[in-house]
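Consider the tokenized backbone below.
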């Protein structure tokens, strides 16, 4: 039994494979678009930016972290972000380590219920200077970034939906179960 492919069926198979590859690669793309990503200066670390924001004025950076708070102002929205290192795809790493905070200005109003505290966010934007923030009596200067592109990451599903090993001999009513030793 021999199978022969016509030119038309070979082209259909090739088109199908190319479409599948495009969908596969789209699912593995960076958080920020390639156009904006190309203009970003990847050599600037957050520590350098935090130490001297005015020296990087006009530079495009890509940063990320967890949203601390969102404030509406008359010319848009300010997002205070707790900085986290980014992984290969641009998503903030889930670590307790942080370099500090920075503020992002978005020229349009953002929904505070969507951009809620503890949401993971990645931004690309232009450094415009500093913003003074007073959480209490002391004023703190944070780097200010004018957002060009924002990626709000989906919330993680609760841990109970992930399979977990349960020890069949574990009894929560014993002293070992209550105190964990």
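A designed sequence for it:
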């Amino acid at each position: 039994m021999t199978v022969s492919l016509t030119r038309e069926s070979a082209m259909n198979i090739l088109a199908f494979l190319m479409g599948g590859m495009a969908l596969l690669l789209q699912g593995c793309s960076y958080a920020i678009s390639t156009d904006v990503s190309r203009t970003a200066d990847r050599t600037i670390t957050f520590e350098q930016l935090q130490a001297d924001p005015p020296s990087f004025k006009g530079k495009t950076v890509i940063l990320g972290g967890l949203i601390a708070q969102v404030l509406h102002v008359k010319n848009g929205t300010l997002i205070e972000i707790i900085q986290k290192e980014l992984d290969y795809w641009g998503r903030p790493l889930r670590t307790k380590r942080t370099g500090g905070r920075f503020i992002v200005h978005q020229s349009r109003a953002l929904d505070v219920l969507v951009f809620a505290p503890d949401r993971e966010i990645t931004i690309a934007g232009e450094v415009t200077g500093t913003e003074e923030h007073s959480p209490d009596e002391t004023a703190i200067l944070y780097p200010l970034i004018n957002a060009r592109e924002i990626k709000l990451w989906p919330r993680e599903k609760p841990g109970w939906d992930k399979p977990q090993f349960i020890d069949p001999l574990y009894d929560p009513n014993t002293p070992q179960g209550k105190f964990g030793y």
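Residues 34-155 form a domain with the OB fold (Dihydrolipoamide Acetyltransferase, E2P) fold (CATH 2.40.50.140).
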